């Protein structure tokens, strides 16, 4: 969740964090944080309308938070916002921890990559615009080879819960072009690519082919100065960490989740699909918790 102020929103976020919530429940929490000032005074119906979910989903959210129902949760929200920050407590501008050893330095560098990404998202239009184009594509091909295959697979896994036809392209070879052509013939209008170092030439060629077929290409990459930039209609940069033996990709993964959030906002039936999945998962006893 993205939150901007260090006051009411931060206190609500502290209340919500640490709980295992479904995507629908996280959306409810996200919207309450966004409306932190008046959240304790909203009825369950108003919260449901705010988050675009059903009223029973709000009740289930309250129970997942450990309360008997929504009224008890609302009392907790009022108490959380009534608490004044402790004098001398930790604040957003506190001094950074010392550099530490090599492992700690790698983690600090990765945290800095996330801070840079947050700064870029001060203008959300590139991401929200890309999310709308990807949401409208039927099917939606998601490409990622070698180091980027994990990012593509993770995105495709979650996107399939809200998008009716997601096609993961994580294997190279001559069949890759065939699958791009098949997606285009089936009606695809856009393609999402995750491109990370070292950049396989095959990805560059695949994106060039995708654009030749008429697909609109969105690429999540480690930099705007990558070989895939010339073959992308929109390139969304998120730096990778280089402090360990193998690159770390926390920022590209987070950018993928933000892009997925933008897609959810653009899909009118996204919440209905999520709630349907939650109900089916509960009926099947799919998850241990």
Characterise this structure:
This protein has helices at residues 8-16, 23-34, 44-51, 55-64, 70-82, 102-120, 125-136, 149-159, 174-185, 201-212, 250-266, 270-284; strands at 140-143, 166-169, 190-195, 216-221, 234-237. It is of the alpha/beta class. It folds into two domains: 8-85, Arc Repressor Mutant, subunit A; 110-274, Rossmann fold. Strands 2-1-3-4-5 form a five-stranded parallel sheet, with helices on both faces. Helix 2 crosses helix 3, helix 6 (102-120) packs parallel to helix 11 and helix 7 (125-136) crosses helix 11 (250-266). The longest helix has 19 residues, at 102-120. It is globular, with a radius of gyration of 21 Å. This is Transcriptional regulator. GO terms for molecular function: carbohydrate derivative binding; DNA binding; DNA-binding transcription factor activity. InterPro entries: Homeodomain-like_sf, HTH_RpiR, RpiR-like, SIS_dom_sf, WH-like_DNA-bd_sf.
The count of β-strands is 5
Q: What is the CA-based Rg, rounded? A: 21 Å
Main β-sheet, in a few words?
5 strands, parallel
Low-pLDDT residue spans: 1-6, 86-98
Distance between the termini: 22 Å
Give the CATH class of the largest domain: Alpha Beta
Helical amount: 40-55%
Structural class: alpha/beta
**CATH H-tier superfamily of the largest domain:** Glucose-6-phosphate isomerase like protein, domain 1
In CATH, the architecture of the largest domain is 3-Layer(aba) Sandwich
Within the largest sheet, what's the order of strands? Answer: 2-1-3-4-5
Number of helices: 12
GO molecular function: carbohydrate derivative binding; DNA binding; DNA-binding transcription factor activity
Pfam family, one: HTH_6
Protein name: Transcriptional regulator
Organism: Wenjunlia vitaminophila
